[in-house]
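User: Thanks for the earlier help. One more: Helicase C-terminal domain-containing protein. Can you show the sequence and predicted structure together?

Assistant: Of course, both are below.
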Amino acid sequence: MEQHLENRTKLLASIAGEIFGPGSRFDTSSGDLLSPGTEIDITKPQAFVDWESYNEKFQGIRPIVKGTGEEILQNESPLLRYGMGILFPKTEDGMNDEADDAADVADANVSTFELSDDELKQKQTLEKKAEKYAEAGGSEIAGEETSSSAETRLANLKSQRSMGISFVVDAAAEGDLVLHATGGRYKRLSQVTVADRPLRWWARTAINDVVSVSLKTLLQAEGQIEPIKVALKELAPIEVNFEIFVRGRDKIPGDQHPASARLITVSLVNRTHCLDEKLLGDFCLFQSRFTAKAGTDTASAILYYPEARSSNSNEETESLDLLYRNEKTFSTGHGCAGTWELNGLGDRALSVCAEPIPAYEVPSITPSLQCENPQDPGQFEDLIIPLSVLADNSRKDESVQLLERMITAYERWVQEKYVESDGLVSDFKCTAQRHLKRCAEVIQRMKDGLSMLVDEENHPDVSLAFRLTNKAMLLQALASKIKTRNPELDKAANRLTYKPPYEALNLESDEAIERAWRPFQIAFFLMNITALADPHAKEREIVDLIWFPTGGGKTEAYLACAAFSILQRRLRNPEDTGTEVLMRYTLRLLTAQQFQRASSLICALETLRPKYERLGTAPFTIGIWVGSSTTPNTIQDAKKSINDTKKNGPDDYKMVLLKCPWCGAAMGPNQKANYQYEVDGVKIAGQQISLHCPDHACSFRSKLPVEVVDENIYKSPPTYLIATVDKFAGLAWREECRSIFGIDDGGERVKSPPGLIIQDELHLITGPLGSMVGLYESLIDELSTDYRDTENPIKPKLVAATATTRASDRQIRDLYARTQTTVFPPPGIDASDSFFAKYAVDDAGKRLPGRMYVGVLPKNYSSALTTSVRLYASLLAAAWGLSTEKERDPWWTLLVFFNSLRELGGSLTLFGADIPERLRNIQNRWYPKGVDGKRRYLNEVLELTGRLASSEVPRALDALDRPYAFKPPKGKYPVDACLASNIIEVGVDVDRLAIMAVAGQPKTTAQYIQATGRVGRNTKKPGVILVNYGANKPRDLSHYEHFQAYHGKLYASVEPSSVTPYTIPVLDRALHAVMVAWVRQNLPMDDLSKPKPFLGTAKETMAKKCLPILKRRIESLTSDQKEKDRMLHDLNQCFDKRIKEWESSNSIIWHEYFPKHDSSDIPLIHPYGAPCPSEWHDENCWAAPNSMRGVDAECRPHIPSRPQNNQSD
């Protein structure tokens, strides 16, 4: 890790040197400090006869000022090179923006840039991609300005003349306020000539000045309108001052500060007047930065910055106040970031800083757990809970001891925290005890689960299901790690073989023996055993939410619950086949990726099933139920997809799997020597289509227990069904969906409904999407409830997972109408430790490295696109300077996150020409002789957005996983840059990625955490996230100025989720669809030939059964009677309206997707937003959603396919 962190430091130094200055002092090709270079005596003329003699002296060297070693800029003025940290002078209004310095332009273009053939091809490809984002506007993508007109324009429009910070000092303390300013000035050198033609060079002079003001002076200046001014010395003719404003005591909210505390603002201001535009750069202060200290060397007088507490405090805010009580803010920035360095106790700041490039390293979270060694009391060791031990029937006692050790350690920790809470102030103490009470409830549930495991006399199936779950999870872990095995032609045998050859999974291997649970995973599984094993357990009503940082292992925790639930159902009744686990996601990228992982688990269970007669003869299966753009709806669609794939290649492949989930053999499109395609792993036999492993050595060579075709899913519902939430809108469109819930064609429940429903990435189920899901959930919950025993109906167990949550109790209640939620692991009394998740520290207690967030706000560049060019090119160039393949790999692929497709489209074209040009420019300066004589070029620029075809998404993820190599195989180049939208928030698990740029502050903190969590997932290779704030975006500026305060409490800044399923827009949009779905899923098929007649039929009776179901859910949503009455009133009104419309409708068929010219049948429903003939409207034909997205009113234009005959009145 040390080498990786050293490289991270070099990379950040290089980027800072490029956009802030002065140029990096690191030679990134060797990792050493730059050599002194060629010293230039700037007091003497530098005359060269011709360019040949000039290049002979300066080619491949770095000119520096003789005596000081400061940089000399060639060809590019500092105002054009650097984008931030510049304090401008005041300029006269109306300066000539059109003035042009021809010499600057000539110097900046000494070398002509030309694209190589490969770069030209890449440029054309990216331009074609960018056409998809026409709204970005081509005129917005302009070349970089290199003339002095750019300098003047910047001074007039974007000039920053001051920077400052506000902080609190104890003005009665001993000592002074000491201010230390650093920066640089650049002087034009006019005595450098080539063939008597003057060149423009700029020589830097360092500024390093310290001033002080007595703290007592601050008390005397309280309330003064004029600030205290202290000038920096030796800057003539520049006038730069520190200006100090002192605010009175009554301006500080809260009562924790002493009476002598004062809130002060210190600004560094350039008061110089510049009357000549050509001298603008001479009057600027570059690389501006200052620090402030107050008090004495032994006692700091800088107090924490006051923060007003909300008057609308609730349990959620009280919890956050407790958990982050030690994360104080000590300064806030003005035109820069306010940062600080703490003293040893963390209660005061040793110094505060006005920082142009703030950086904050978020703590690395460890799931490891230390417990007391029973053989050596008083000594602690990591608790290792191997899956192989828990899976072994002969090691039951050892398994129980391991689980008891974990529970005992948790109990001891809770008791310790109770003791610590006694020392908290009263407000915090009450909140802490509430937290610890929830921890105690979790402990009791874990004990109950363990009791069931050991009580084999009363619960024999529980112990067996637990052991088999551990064995299946171990097999799944081994299978998931297998890389894709590609086919090769064995010419001697004239058949395909797979490399490396097939090897059966070995449970006796070192890898299998060492595979262990993360403690929070097995603890979550253990606490859910009672709810999963006993359908009538009270814990079944609780929604358990796994809250763990991105990449922590949440998936394995709920996969274990899924496997156990599946096994329990079969052990109770081997004939009770059907869907037991329903897992839902919001994005198809995540759905497809998790399908591969879950398929490995089902293969493991199916491998174990024949060995245990009690598990029955029906196979365990898994299905994926998503949109038609991703998987086929029918057998005929699947056949067409296969045929189209053979003709056109991978873009038409819809069978999802690209490798066998058991052995890793490559599946899907495989290009042959004649440029035709074969589709490996798909078997078509008459009207049947199935997936199988193409490697004949694999256990699943005949058939994989995997289903991707909707038609087959309805015929034989899979044991484990993975779906997107949008797919459930289809309940109103297809009666066949009922089979998923165990209902047959006669409307009778013949199989148990799903017993476990899992919702991953819960934070995404919010806003309009969450509101729609909440309404449909009333239908899904009823269909998933088993009423065959009317006295004791069985409801499904709900499990959710997220890395970012806020107000989850409210969100879950609005979505699922469940009043009890358990967040796991429950928080303790500090954000740094919840027992199962802690800040990672070394043996000395120092935090281990985590992701490094770095903020930049380059105001000086001419446009946001110019900023992007400079930043991305420097990031790409920095990786080139590292020495080995291993060192380069984490930094090689630049992942860029965009908040909108418009911004992404604009940047796509930049990677075609502007960025390669700037990359070449930087390499000429950083590596004038190249790195090993070579230069970096951009070979592979990837787009990862929702606009990609479903078949392209897995290939894109595979491309991101390609490691860097000096000589990669043809067509297997590592990705240079990946431009991504919010599709990457979830599901991109690529350990090698370590560098990301974020184009502007994301819309929400949850999105920010999720997106940036895609890099640095390997804890041994912490990543860097460079946030490129928009200079003209007030929200971005606020985040920049509060950079350290924001990132110090990042998870506390997550916004609460909003879900409102019973508001008028949602009811108008979807209530009728829910009614239709309820009727079509419950009535016998024989009663569903037509939607009419309605009045007095079973359809009317069934439709009206919806109302009491919805009313019961509203009763659970709120205790506010006024709000409850409002929801009930809106529901009744909308429901009555829909019933009357159904009664008066003349619908002949249930649904129609598009009008047909050869049919006059009126449907009851048609897709929302699709063309709708006027006669359909006249007959109360409803527009029904076939997706959960959006509830806002829309206006969609429709162009008729043929002109209408207009007749005059």
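User: Great, one quick takeaway?

Assistant: The radius of gyration is 33 Å.
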